[in-house]
Amino acid sequence: MTETPSADHQDSQAPSPVDFSDRRHRPGKIIALHLNYPSRIAQRGRSPKFPGYFLKAGSSVSRSGEAIERPEGTELLAYEGEIALVLGETCRRVSPEEGWSKVSGITAANDWGLYDLRHADKGSNLKNKSGDGYTPLGPNVIPAAGLDPTQLRVRTWVNGELTQDDTTEGLAFPFGQLIADLSQLMTLEAGDVILTGTPAGSSVAQPGDVVEVEVDAPQAPGTPSTGRLITPVRSSGRTLADFGAQPQVDDTQREEAWGSREAAGLAPQPAAASGEARGAGEGAGVEPYRYVPDTPAADRTLLTTELRAKIEETAVATITAQLRKRGIDNATIDGVRPTHPGQRILGYAKTLRYVPNREDLFKRFGGGFNAQKRAMDTVEPDDVVVMEARGETGTGTLGDVLALRAQVRGATAVVTDGGVRDSAAVAEVGLQVYSNGAHPAVLGRRHIPWEVGGTIACGGTTVQPGDIIIGDDDGVVVVPPALLAEVVDAAWEQEQQDAWVYEQVEAGHPVDGLFPPNAEWKSKYEQYRQSRVNQGER
């Protein structure tokens, strides 16, 4: 059995098996961080100014393959895949620049928590987080020497399905800062373990599930990996005795345990409430992340089969004209051109906003599971992802990987008033993309992904989530949902009349009085339309 790596043998890059649950090698302290990954911060709706921690009992440590038990009568046993830092030497009052040098190795961790008991300890997380088996570690430790702490990756699978996937690029609190901060007041000892936070994707596991966590360094030579840390979940068969705190859950705990209200089976709530106070536990004393104005919920029943058929036969130019007749002149997304001419689009707007790059903010919000990735990872069938990029064409707002992700999730198209990088590869994906052109630069040159689901400006017009987006070779128009049926019916009728007028011109009639039709020609058209109705045609 190999012991925890020490500073004396950091030169080896081969991951080493370690059984942290063995009492001889058990960590003296297990210190866990509340929030660190931008993806989790965004999900929680709270942005900490400084690191916040809690302790976990040494007896909670287990090894790969050992089961975790969920007490009878509880429902919210949640997993959190994390990167664990193993201290290689005792240290006190180190600087952030020195902090990483005190780490001998990294390993995979699963910071299990029983949300049913979060109420019991006023934020200490003692009963919630320190049950037997609630801190599996391993199976291997990757030596820290030579690793870039900003280029590590953590992934989690539940029953073989990937649920967490993020990197350490852009963490709110770099690893060196954590060690420096903790060592201001306490001595960190060789063998202590620091759990560094979990990314978005943490959720609830059920008895019978198998949860696996792996940490690796994709950019390092040989891609060193911890291997998969495996934790089967089973029921304990025992309820909690009544001389201690009893399980207690509410919708806030369900939302936070599952990761979202939707995943927990709860009705949506206004986005403005996302920064309000939460229950005890993670993120105490932090400020709201960002206020997102409330926007109307999308009515995803609007696009009926009949309306879709009419829209398919109707030009965007005609729809635009009908909107103008109703006083809406500014409804087109200007300046964008399609990747695939001849391929129409129709769907519900899913909005994404970029703000101008500012280096300090990009460091916090640009990396990891940022707003751009969240938008593509939450696409629903029939969505059109509409991006506000301020008409900035000097960088890309979309590449082939995210275009493919949107397509796999069921998106109809992407519309951006910015640029597209890897344009040939994006075209090969097949998803229709309207953009302001191609540019090779990455997102961070000009943009920070900032907000999903707000009201945005794209190509000079306002777009709200749930607006109807229609596009053809002429361009893209935004139709307010409340006007959709009225506008489409009128535009379709206009298309039928225009087609009839075209036939008359083709037959040799002069356009004077015919286009637009005067009273005589209108009467002839009505007779024509009635004859078609009598024949059972539309």
UniProtKB/TrEMBL annotation:
Record-listed substrate binding positions: 399-402, 421
Pfam families according to UniProt: FAA_hydrolase, RraA-like
Keywords: Magnesium, Metal-binding
Gene3D superfamilies registered for this protein in UniProt: Fumarylacetoacetase-like, C-terminal domain, Ribonuclease E inhibitor RraA/RraA-like
Full protein name: 2-keto-4-pentenoate hydratase/2-oxohepta-3-ene-1,7-dioic acid hydratase in catechol pathway
Residues holding Mg(2+): 422
InterPro entries referenced in this protein's UniProt entry, alphabetically: Fumarylacetoacetase-like_C, Fumarylacetoacetase_C_sf, RraA/RraA-like, RraA/RraA-like_sf
PANTHER family: ACYLPYRUVASE
Domain Fumarylacetoacetase-like C-terminal span(s) in chain numbering: 29-224
Sample GO molecular function, one term: metal ion binding
Residue ranges of the region described as Disordered: 1-23, 244-292
Source taxonomy: Bacteria, Bacillati, Actinomycetota, Actinomycetes, Micrococcales
Cofactor: Mg(2+)
SUPFAM superfamilies for the chain: FAH, RraA-like
UniProt biased composition (Basic and acidic residues): 1-11
Biased composition (Low complexity): 263-277
